[in-house]
Amino acid sequence: MTHRIVRSLNFAPWHVALLALSMVYGLYLRQQLQVISHELMVPLNMWDQILTFLLDPYYISYLFVPIWLYSSCVSIQRHFSVPALIRLGSYRSWLYRSTLHALARLIPLLLIWLVSATVTAAGLPLSIDWSATSTVGNPLNQVLGFVSNHGIPPLLVLALQLMLVGLTLLCLHMVLALVHLLSSKQVVIYAAAAALFFAQLISFRSRIEAAPFLDLANFFLLHRSFTAYDPVALVFLPVIAVIGLCVAGVQYQDRRHRSTPLRLPGSLSTLLYVGLCALGLIYALAFELRNEVGTPTDVLFVAFYGVSAEGFEWNLYLYHSIVFLGFAYLFLLVLENELKARIYYVALRHGSPTRWFSRFILPVAARVPLLLGALFAGALLIGLAGGPSADGNALADLRLGQGWVLYQFFINGTLQVLCYILVVFVIGWLNGRPMAGLFALGCLLVAGLPAVNSARVLPAALNSLGYVGLGGQELLRITAVLSVYCLALLLGALLIVKSPKLFFNERV
Amino acid sequence: MAVIQLEKITKSFKGTTLFENVNATFDAGKIYGIVGHNGSGKSVLFKLICGFIVPDSGTVTIDPTYMSKNRTFPENFGVIIDRPGYLPQKTGLDNLRDLARIRAVIGDDEIRTAMKSVGLAPDTKQAVRNYSLGMKQKLALTQAIMEEPQVLLLDEPFNALDVDSVELVRNLLASYRDKGRTVIFTSHNREDMDLLADHVFRIRANSLEQTA
Q1: Would A274 be classed as within a structural domain?
Q2: How many CA atoms lie within 13 A of B100 on its CB side?
């Protein structure tokens, strides 16, 4: 693979022009830096020049991004052809191949950028650490002053910035490829590219603090990422999520053409799910460490905070949804297999739909407490490994204490996940298509928002630990609400199972 | 007693009548062939027999030997109906293991034997999604026969099979008849009917006519 990429790297004549332009701009930036250094009366080193260049919004937004978007449009159209598709066999393979082509285009661009930054830094003192100019807090030197304050060495900042920009550009390429795939019209892909260009221009000028994942500049400039995401590594999550959506979109297109199920492969989905769960727990630990308080139980509390009556933080709610709705999504994959491929053969062997249902749903239901137990243990282990004290005092500021936290996590958590599973089952089965289950999960995601579910009567995100602050009475009421939903959904599921018309007719 | 008896079966879907007052009897130790044009209702007939769909009127009676008290669907039936019956990401053997585990009357050895009997290699690591059409058909046949059922309902079992495999499956079905079991199959190939079927039913004008 690496050999193929290296062989396919295309250094075109216009790269020379870009290099020359970049060098000129780099020299201009160096001149600016020297003025700052002179005014502050502190010395520069090579990192000032290299990182100032790599974090320069004008270079990125007015030169790098438009070149990338345009060349992506050209490349996508060039490689999208019937003979290519027939040989590749699927739209998904085409997307992967197109992304590989994009990588071959990206590497020269990044190299030009890096070489220009390094060459224009020639003559400045070599160092592995930040310069005095970078560490002096001054309005003239906001960006590096801000980044250097985070305790990350400059080499790591360089690597992170290149990774972030590279991944974001590949992500934009995939978005454009998907747009082209869905529309197949030249004008649409150029319109999409123009929209992305203007969106990033606006985003560079004004921040969207309420929804940092919509703020494109956060994915191009590491200093913006530091403000929006803590820990900064989380900035990669939305990019990966969009890439995942593109892959799912392409799979959908494949499915439309040859009835392939809309899903990631089961093993990959599970792996992704476990990885995201672990990432969330690590994030919670980082949050606790930043606040310099907390116990291992607090890691659990932060990780599964979800929403509260007062509002929500999108990142906490996103993680909560990934864990609990994600489990329901994995269930949906299993359900899809039963629904689409094997139901006659499985039902015949079980002898009756009721028996099939009980043997199908009970093992899944039994896994819910196991999942919660694993998450609980994971949170405690990560908490202990991360160093917060284990004295338990940090929960004293909660109105109710650990007992109710555990009650909400385990009891309401179990009921909530069962509710999700039953919703997916009932909706998916009645509709006969997995898309319906996905749609139901999307609705539940919205229904969980405090603004929508202020009375806490909709069966979504009610297991949020953010609700613990409302008191034991409210938690018991939530238990009652979830129990009623679970019973009603179970009755609905049994009705489906008991009625051959509902159970099979959709699939005649 | 007949293994399967259809009495005055009527079935419509969304205003289209597929069967009207259909009567038929299927006895043990015989092979029955069903013919009919595409969309005439051959698969629906199999689903009616299995209890996967319910007739609008009339009754499907299954020999009580195959219908214990708590069962909705008959026991000891092997079927191929229009669903693929396998999970594409798993190997053939793993797919069959999943299904065999439900009744737990056979183990790995029997599954392997059944696979070999239709010409499939049991230990290949190939996922089913990479199977050829013919291999998928053989896998469907294996799931139907692996538990040695007394009744086989096979919707177009010879589809996509090569000449040798067709011969293999024909012999297999004939051996089922010799053991006193019942086989009902559909096919568009007259040769299959001539060589195998003791009786042939044709679905025509919403009815099931015995033609041979």
Answers
A1: no
A2: 22
Tokens 């979800």, residue? A306
For residues A157 and A302, membership in a common domain is answered with: no
A228 and A354 share one domain: no
Q: Rounded to whole angstroms, how far apart are CA atoms A228 and A218?
A: 7
Strand order in the sheet with B4-13: B16-26, B4-13, B57-62
The pLDDT-based confidence of A52 (bands split at 50, 70, 90) is confident
- DSSP class of residue A312 equals B
| A255 assigned to some structural domain | no
CA end-to-end span of chain A? 46
Distance, CA of A306 to chain centre = 16
Residue A343 pLDDT greater than 60, yes or no:
yes
- The whole-angstrom separation of Cα A328 and Cα A338 is 15
Angstroms from A265 CA to nearest CA on chain B: 8
Which run of H or E residues covers position A252? helix A236-258
Which has the closest alpha carbon to A243: A208, A272, A201, A284? A272
Residue A413: inside a domain:
yes
Same domain, A189 and A312: no
Backbone angles phi, psi at B11, to 5 degrees: -145, 130
Residues A235 and A312 in one domain: no
CA of B40 to nearest chain A CA: how many angstroms apart?
Answer: 13
The Cα–Cα gap between B46 and B39 comes to 13
Token pair recorded at residue A5? 């990429």
Out of A266, A348, A355, closest to residue B77 by CB:
A348
With contact defined as beta carbons under 8 Å apart, do A394 and A295 qualify? yes
Please judge whether A500 and B77 are an interchain contact, meaning their C-beta atoms are less than 8 angstroms apart: no
Contact B70 A348 (CB under 8 A): no
- Domain residues for the domain of A464 are 284-507
DSSP code for B182: E
In one letter, which amino acid is A151? G
Q: What is the pLDDT of residues A64-82, one digit of tens each?
A: 899 999 999 988 888 887 6
A25 closest CA partner among A115, A105, A95, A102:
A115
d(CA B199, CA B212): 5
3-state SS class at A210: coil
Distance CA A190, CA A490 (A): 49
In a domain, A45, yes or no: yes
* Sign of the four-CA dihedral A71, A72, A76, A79: positive
pLDDT band at A484 (very low <50, low <70, confident <90, very high): very high
Q: Which of A186, A220, A244 is the last residue of a domain?
A: A244
Which residue, A212, A244, A276, sits at the end of a domain?
A244
A134-148, A420-434, B71-85: least confidently modelled range: A134-148
Q: A207 and A313 share a domain? A: no
Helix or strand holding residue B20 (H, E): strand B16-26
Backbone φ, ψ for residue B174 (5° rounding): -60, -40
- Looking at residue B97, its pLDDT comes to 92
Question: Is the same domain home to A193 and A76?
Answer: yes
Say if residue A240 is in the same domain as residue A313. no
The total number of structural domains in chain A stands at 2
Mean pLDDT, residues B20-35 taken together: 93
**Closest Cα of chain B to A498: distance in Å?**
10
Are A133 and A233 within one domain? yes
How many Cα neighbours within 13 Å face the side chain of B113? 10
> Which of helix, strand or coil describes residue B60?
strand
Kindly list the residues of chain B whose beta carbon comes within 8 Å of any beta carbon in chain A.
13, 44, 47, 50-54, 68, 70-75, 77, 79, 81, 83-89, 99, 102-103, 143
Chain B residues with CB under 8 Å of A501 CB are 53-54
